[in-house]
Structures are given as structure tokens and as C-alpha cells.
Amino acid sequence: MALLRVDQAVAAIAGSQVLRRVSVDIAAGETLALIGRNGAGKTSLLRVIMGALPLVEGKIEFSGRDITSMPAHERVGLGIGYAPEERRLIGKFTVQENILLPAWAGRLGAAEIQERLELIYFVAPELKDLSPRFGGLLSGGQQKMVALGRALMAGKHMVLLDEPFQGLAPALAQAYAGMLRALRDARPDLAILVTESNPQLLQSMADRMIVLERGEVQPGAVETTTVQRL
Ligand SMILES: Nc1ncnc2c1ncn2[C@@H]1O[C@H](COP(=O)(O)OP(=O)(O)OP(=O)(O)O)[C@@H](O)[C@H]1O
Ligand SMILES: [Mg+2]
Q: Domain named ABC transporter: which ranges (predicted)?
């Protein structure tokens, strides 16, 4: 059974359709790459999943439950973490406080918070060193790492990463890819949905790729075999 099922989703912004009957399934443990050019609808699809953009038509199911009309704030408890494109760190909060925000919003227990922090610092050890620094004093690349940490705090079952590689220097992009691989090894049941405009970056990492163009899924999802995984 799919962990997340988006079925024939239609969404509009300012009267024009940005998603046109988009259907996407993702299974537990699967890494799905969502590829598309600027304006293709990648961010819109993630926002629809998070409940930030309403559906005009279609349906969203999570763990077999219809969440189409569940308000965004109630989805916090579903265990879906989201690292938006523009990161949205709070400058006056430390790195660790920024990572903990979803834990406070979702009222996670102390043991669960501790467990997630350990995973986050295992996957991204640099974050441990940065933890007392203020969010506003980090480089763009460092902020992307914090955004990943924050997504993992909320994302017990799934994380949505919106163009995490965009704007990263090649060395940082490699480091980030290494973190995602470490994450997959440490949490083999976690579903990862990651968007990117360049398919090459994710080819070696994703189990499957789908291409969005002008709000539509292009036919023929690309299966990338586990053998190709690095
Ligand atoms: N705030 C907005 N107001 C009006 N139109 C918008 C707004 N946000 C997005 N759109 C439009 O919705 C469509 C889909 O945008 P979306 O942000 O989902 O694309 P994307 O694939 O994430 O692009 P990018 O790679 O640039 O992040 C585009 O045509 C875009 O112009
Ligand atoms: Mg986008």
C-alpha cells in the first residue's frame, strides 16, 4: 500500500491551474525524485500535500486515510516533514531551536525529541557544531542543512525536500547528497520526496523519478534500479 497517494489533484493559483490531474504514489522507504523546470508545479504539489494549497479536485491519502480536507495544522501530527525551498529559518533562534520548532508544534515527547535529534546529528554531524549559532548568521548552504534537520524532526514517516540542491556549490551538493544517503541507510522505512530541476543530480539516488511539466505528470515514470543507487 502506498504511504502517500495523490490522486488526480487539481490546484489553482490566482485562477490558473498549476496542477492538472496529478497522480503520484510514494511507498514507505522509497526515494522519489520529482523533476521539473521552473514553474512546472513542483512546489505547488508539495504545498498541496502539506495542506497549504487547497485542492480544487482530487484526493490525497496518507496511510490509507483521506486527508484531502484536513487543515494544514492538523497534518503536523501525520509525521510528514517539509523543507521548503526558501528555508524559512528564524534568525533570532539558534540552529537547535529552529530544528525543534516542529517538535513544539507537534507536542512531541522528550524521548522522541531526543531520538530524532540523535538521528539528525548522525546524518548531519555539522549541525551539532552549528547548534548554538543563530539561524540568521548561517550561510545559504548551512541553512539548507538546518531545513533538512527540521524536516526530519517532524518527518517520522516522510520528508518533502524542495530543491535542496539549488544554489549549493558542487562540494556542498556532494555533502548534502551524502547526508541523504546516510539518512536512507539509517531510516530505511522513511519515504523521501525530493524535487530538482536537473534529473542528473538525483539519478543515482532516487528509486524512481517523475517529471512534471506545466502542472502535468509526463508519461513514463523512470525507474532507477537499486543497483544504480550509490
Ligand atoms: N504566489 C504565486 N502567485 C501567482 N502564481 C504563482 C505563485 N506561486 C506560483 N505560481 C505559479 O504557479 C505555477 C507553478 O509554480 P511552482 O512554484 O509550483 O513551480 P516549481 O516547479 O516549484 O518552480 P521552481 O522550480 O521555480 O521552484 C507557475 O506557473 C507559477 O508562476
Ligand atoms: Mg519550486
A: 4-230
